[in-house]
Batch of 4 targets.
Target 1
Amino acid sequence: MTIVIEAIGPNNADLFKDIRVRALQDSPTACSSTYAEESKLTDADWLKRAAQWSGATSVAYLAMATAAQWVSHQECAIAMIASAPI
């Protein structure tokens, strides 16, 4: 299995959204937010959020297996661990 590490940004905001809301459904206590809250966000909200997660002062990553299958449903924990000041 090949693992791909990709910085979260506007170019993959749709994938970030899909992974994040699925993680919130699968592991509702893993994040400080909830599926009910984040599933209401608009595409524009997700673009803004993705840009903020990897912006001028930090970077966060998606870790994916080939064919964009998520390696771990604990996306919140992985993104927080992978996020670092620049």
Target 2
Amino acid sequence: MINNKKILFQIEIDPKLQTKPFVNVTQISFYQSEDEILIMLGAFFHIDNIYLDDKANIWIACLSLADESNYRLKDTFAQM
């Protein structure tokens, strides 16, 4: 028996940070009513919080795009 769960990723991006490239593609998206961002493959995220929204029966994962100057990730970014 498969026990699937729904999850929504809420990603916070500070455009002032030095990170992997990202771009807003809302204007060229098929779903123009949605805010849509493409993030370069290999980007790292901090997991800020994960919780279950009981009302909507969905897990919410709050992430933030990692800064390339983050001392814990410097070696990892250097290898990319």
Target 3
Amino acid sequence: MLSFIESEPAMVIGVLDAVIMLLISFGVPISGDQKVQIDGVLAAVGALVAAYATRQLVTPTSKVQALVNKALVTPTPLVPKPEVVK
């Protein structure tokens, strides 16, 4: 479930918003201001979840550059060619 929330934060926010609208249509006493505030909180939480999920899927360029530098500086040992015995 958490992986779905991380991969689809906009869909989760939309579903929660639809549930709030459904509750309002059935008479739950939520004012327009409260709905706007709830939407704002959902949007902020969704943005944080999206940022966290995206961060887990990328490699920082500093780490890539360090690996490239290490690969360029580290000499590889030369393996001698096998001699053919006649």
Target 4
Amino acid sequence: MSSDTPTHTLFLVPSVSHVLKGEQALLRAGIPCRLIPLPRDLGSQCGVCLRVDHADRHSAEKVLQAAGAQVDGTHDVRMPAAEESGGARPTGTETQAGKKGEGR
């Protein structure tokens, strides 16, 4: 895998209620996910985002939409293994969708 190939997708949501609704829907659908602190350089929504494996991105998008969990944006990121970097800080972010308020 190239050093800039995304490993995960982060879903940015406007509130804790949407992140919890999304997490519940993804887990019910069998899509592994984690709630992680929102990296500061990606925004200031509710401070928490949903992280899924990049390979599950499209399935996760469909599940979140069907569940009514509002997503303000998605970012494909490379999250190095903790042993490689001493932490799990995302690198190489690329905005995929929407700023707050866009499309409404």
